[in-house]
Amino acid sequence: MKVDPYRTASQEDLVRDHLPLVKRIAYRLMAKLPPSVEVDDLIQVGLMGLLDAAQHFDEEQKAPFEIYASQRIRGAMLDELRQMDWWPRSARKLMREIEAAMQELQQSLKRTPLEREVADLLGVSLGDYQQKLQEAAGHQLLYYEDFFNGDEAGFLDRHVFSDAINPLVVLEDDGFRQKLLEAIRLLPEREQLLMSLYYEEDLNLREIGLILEVTESRVCQLHTQAIGRIRSMLRDWIK
Question: CATH class for domain 89-238?
């Protein structure tokens, strides 16, 4: 990496001291991305975000540098991912099929379906189903396109009247939050623990795997499955 002669010593110190932050953010993002995304690519653009943060940080700001830099680093990585169009339509189609199977079984069984039951409904082996989960890794709870359904009126058209409102209003809705909490409570115990360790305790997939005594790839599968279960139980809100 070339050194900018105009960067001050304090900026050099900020960059050097916060290099681990770039890797930490990159590996956390990788848990939500498909295998086609290279972590080294994220780290590279994250370093550019760190350099930018060091150059523009004002010590008079109330926020500490780590928080400021985290936003710049994560923003740089997300910008890169948007340009890469990292989650192909085929993966989203695959996840919708899994969610539909989960919802059908949830309604017919009146309980959270087992992996084997979802696999049977999809007409695949358990191993193939788990591979599908691996391929669909990177699915989020909400996507902007969730609020639109082809030529039909989208969620926002049905529920709000201002074009200025965006999908974030759903997350602020008391009814949605209650439904989300209910969906999380209905997750199998191990998946509840996984979500708590990942989103509340801020552990990475490897660390969670050690706790659950499974491989990192298995944690990735379970995370994808948990997101799928939650989305299947929230389909009235996101379709």
Answer: mainly alpha
